[in-house]
Design brief:
Elements lengths: L1 H25 L6 H8 L3 H7 L3 H29 L4 H18 L1 H11 L7 H24 L9 H22 L5 H17 L4
Helix pairs in contact: 1-2, 1-4, 1-6, 2-3, 4-5, 4-7, 5-6, 5-7, 5-8, 5-9, 6-8, 7-8
Length: about 200
């Protein structure tokens, strides 16, 4: 049973990777199940065995990807606070974790950002749910920072969380598309200074 589950998980990962790459390259509508199967190196029937349709595959792709990102952000924050660090330091660690994730999965990030601007997709409700999953992680750290006196009570937590999340996404995509010669350390340092100066009010 464990062996069967392992094989199925491996197959689904291959399908996820094939689908996200193809959709990022040529768009959802232009990507066929045949192409996904061929890129993944499996039979077409395998796609339908694991996912009822291309739409279902895409929705699961979004859920899977954002869950990985949210887990990474949470672990980064808990790692800092667990060592006695501040919530601002935890936010900074989350920025780095976000950059690390995007550098590993650039096609998924491009796809997610592109779909955020569309309003006529069947999976729009799914997109909102997965977005909320990631934003909630950031909101939690911001609330702890306010409760601990590290941030002002006047901060709009939901909007600030969205701004931080969006800042990392857009900056990372700009980095990879237009400034690929920069290292991840340089990009993180720039965003870290922005966090310290614009959110916490501490000198950089």
């Amino acid at each position: 049973m464990d062996s069967s589950n392992t094989r199925r998980d491996a197959t689904r990962r291959k399908l996820f990777e094939a689908a996200v790459t193809l959709i990022a390259e040529q768009g959802f509508s232009s990507t066929t199940v045949d192409e996904i199967a061929e890129r993944a190196g499996v039979a077409k029937g395998t796609v339908y065995y694991n996912f009822a349709s291309k739409n279902v595959l895409f929705e699961e792709l979004l859920r899977h990807g954002i869950e990985m990102l949210a887990t990474s952000l949470q672990a980064a924050a808990e790692g800092v606070t667990g060592r006695g660090g501040s919530r601002i330091d935890a936010l900074d660690a989350m920025i780095r974790a976000g950059l690390d994730f995007i550098s590993r999965y650039p096609a998924l990030t491009q796809l997610y950002v592109a779909e955020l601007w569309r309003t006529n997709r069947a999976w729009q409700s799914t997109l909102m749910v997965v977005r909320e999953r990631a934003i909630t992680v950031v909101e939690g750290v911001l609330r702890e920072a306010v409760a601990g006196g590290e941030l002002s009570e006047e901060i709009d937590i939901p909007l600030t969380a969205s701004a931080l999340f969006g800042m990392v996404l857009v900056a990372a995509l700009d980095w990879q598309s237009y400034q690929p010669d920069r290292s991840i350390d340089e990009v993180h340092a720039a965003l870290s200074r922005l966090l310290q100066g614009r959110v916490s009010g501490r000198p950089s």
